[in-house]
Amino acid sequence: MLDTPTTTAILKLAGLTRAFKQGERKITVLNGASAEIFPGEAVALVGPSGAGKSTLLHIAGLLESPDSGSVVIGGQDCAKLDDDARTRIRRSEVGFIYQFHQLLPEFSALENVVLPQMILGMSRKKAAERATELLSALGLQNRLDHRPAQLSGGEQQRTAICRALANRPKLILADEPTGNLDPKTSELVFHELIGLFKREGVAALIATHNLELASRMDRVLRMEGGHLIEVAPGAVR
After folding, report:
1. pLDDT tens readout for residues 205-237
2. Per the count of CB atoms within 10 A, which of 31, 112, 155, 220 is most buried?
3. Helices and strands counted in the chain (H then E)
């Protein structure tokens, strides 16, 4: 467990509300959700299916707008930004990891990690150096030229993790990043994931149904009634 952070939060969510219409019914998913995520910490986001975890991640990652409330990333209030500026923030400040790797099948592991860097203007040489460094850190130095179909599930997800970190984001948002893996591989990838986050110094918000893994993160936030409630990692049920 981390001591109380004294640094500035990378992600600050304040008073988020979000509701959807289903026919004549109004379904409230977020009802004043607030949280802060700090550099170097991994925070678990838990709660039952349908509680709003994915909606919260989409709003935090600027993929969706809340009905009200604010999203501050790296000190910048993103609610005041236009669509182009939000896209730039997503590309440079936020990394996404999904349950399914979503790698580009026609490209190698190395190329999948190089491409997002080149989109932001990095030279191919520098991008390849960064990609090789990240992939090697997760034991994939001998798999750089392999396409996703030639990689195991764990190797695919490691590559997706490296892609998310390629542009040195301040914030990582992960939605069930080990949910598609067998228990042994899930444990290994989780251990590597957290270690790499710590080394990179990013703030990470990780939605998971795996309460055992959640209990080993720095903090745990539970989605409950549209709110975010902090619970002690050892008390996660």
Report:
1. 999 888 888 888 999 999 998 899 998 776 666
2. 112
3. 7, 10
**CB burial of residue 84 (10 Å; 0-12, 13-18, 19+):** exposed
3-state DSSP call for residue 58?
A: helix
Measuring CA to CA, which residue among 199, 205, 143 is closest to residue 172?
Answer: 205
In angstroms, what CA-CA distances link 139 with 39, 57, 134, 149, 178?
Answer: 25, 28, 9, 18, 17
Outline where DSSP puts E strands in the chain. 11-22, 25-37, 42-46, 68-73, 76-77, 94-97, 171-175, 203-207, 219-224, 227-231
* pTM more than 0.70: yes
Which of these ranges, 24-28, 116-120, 124-128, 202-206, has the smallest mean pLDDT? 24-28
Q: How far is CA 32 from CA 14, 43, 148, in A?
A: 7, 19, 40
Ramachandran bin of 121, using left for φ above 0, alpha for ψ from -120 to 50, beta for the remaining angles: left
